[in-house]
């Protein structure tokens, strides 16, 4: 079921989404209204991490699953272990699903090629929901397709809509109990943006596909996020949700103390806006990052030592 609990006009009058709407849309978060989560990497996510995440006040974890690797037994074990770790601490999962390889092997993909790839992808999503649905707060379809790095099929303006239309067509035919959100845009949708152009066509043809529009408001102010939420609601008639936002602990912003201050401000902003779901990036520093910035987004160091951000988050969320 896709949730349309209030008329759009009523929501506009209210100005923001109420916690009741959030809990009904993302029912896995309903009991404690814990609408803020944190991203983890399945390769190093443990039951100990899950307990600490829960103790810090987070309501869920977000991690990615790559459809092109699902046949690999080792990767299957990683996915199963990550879900088991989350379950051990009663943490729901926001599962982001995408492919890390091009959807077709042809340099000039036709509509039929992309439609077939969309059907195959949808079947993978359905299989994952069948296996892990009881633990899912939502399934996010893709991550930052508006960036070439995360859309390996290339030519976003040409290939994205045919593929995602086929995905939505297939998923709308199934009675999935887990809310579907999409598409994890790197840039918040605005008038005539790549995201908005694609969303307009997909939602016009498949209005029941998504329960929310997801985006990543890095560097945006509270006012800009508020404006984005209103734009999404007005144009696409579903709420906006934030599935990735973070800040590195670089010396240029005041190190770990500066990171904690900015995270505090961000959480305060999204709580005031009653955003139905927000995920912070990320739980631990990533040693595999290509530079100091990419390696320092963690709330903890890579070896699990707490930064000031963890204490600040606990004060806000507990």
Describe it.
- This protein has helices spanning 8-14, 19-25, 47-55, 73-88, 111-132, 156-172, 194-205, 222-236, 255-273, 292-295, 308-317, and strands at residues 36-39, 61-66, 93-98, 136-141, 180-185, 212-215, 240-245, 278-280.
- By secondary structure, it is of the alpha/beta class.
- The chain has a single domain (8-317), classed as Glycosidases (TIM Barrel), CATH 3.20.20.80.
- An 8-stranded parallel β-barrel has the order 1-2-3-4-5-6-7-8.
CATH T-level topology: TIM Barrel
Unreliable segments of 5+ consecutive residues: 1-19
Number of helices: 11
**End-to-end distance:** 31 Å
Shape: globular
Residues in helices, as a percent range: 40-55%
The beta-strand count equals: 8
What about the largest sheet?
8 strands, parallel, barrel
Mean pLDDT: 91
């Amino acid at each position: 079921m896709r949730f349309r609990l209030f008329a759009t006009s009523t929501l506009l009058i209210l100005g923001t989404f109420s916690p009741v709407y959030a809990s009904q849309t993302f029912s896995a978060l309903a009991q404690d209204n814990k609408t803020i989560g944190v991203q983890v990497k399945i390769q190093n996510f443990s039951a100990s991490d899950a307990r600490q995440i829960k103790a810090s006040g987070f309501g869920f974890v977000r991690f990615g699953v790559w459809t092109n690797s699902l046949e690999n037994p080792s990767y299957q074990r990683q996915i199963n272990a990550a879900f088991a770790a989350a379950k051990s601490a009663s943490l729901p999962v926001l599962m982001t699903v995408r492919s890390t390889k091009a959807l077709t092997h042809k340099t000039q993909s036709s509509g039929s090629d992309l439609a077939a790839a969309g059907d195959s992808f949808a079947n993978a999503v359905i299989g994952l929901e069948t296996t892990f649905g009881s633990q899912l707060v939502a399934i996010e379809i893709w991550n930052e397709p508006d960036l070439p790095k995360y859309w390996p099929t290339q030519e976003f303006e040409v290939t994205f809509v045919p593929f995602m239309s086929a995905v939505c067509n297939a998923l709308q035919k199934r009675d999935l109990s887990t809310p579907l959100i999409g598409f994890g845009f790197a840039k918040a949708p605005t008038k005539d943006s790549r995201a908005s152009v694609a969303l307009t066509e997909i939602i016009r043809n498949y209005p029941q596909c998504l329960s929310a529009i997801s985006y990543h408001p890095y560097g945006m102010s509270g006012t800009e996020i508020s404006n984005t939420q209103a734009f999404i609601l007005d144009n696409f008639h579903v709420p906006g949700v934030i599935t990735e936002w973070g800040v590195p602990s670089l010396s240029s912003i005041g190190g770990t103390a500066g990171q904690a201050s900015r995270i505090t401000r961000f959480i305060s902003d999204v709580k005031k806006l009653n955003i139905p779901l927000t995920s912070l990036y990320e739980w631990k520093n990533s040693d595999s990052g290509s530079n100091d910035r990419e390696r320092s987004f963690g709330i903890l160091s890579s070896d699990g030592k707490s930064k000031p951000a963890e204490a600040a988050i606990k004060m806000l969320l507990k």
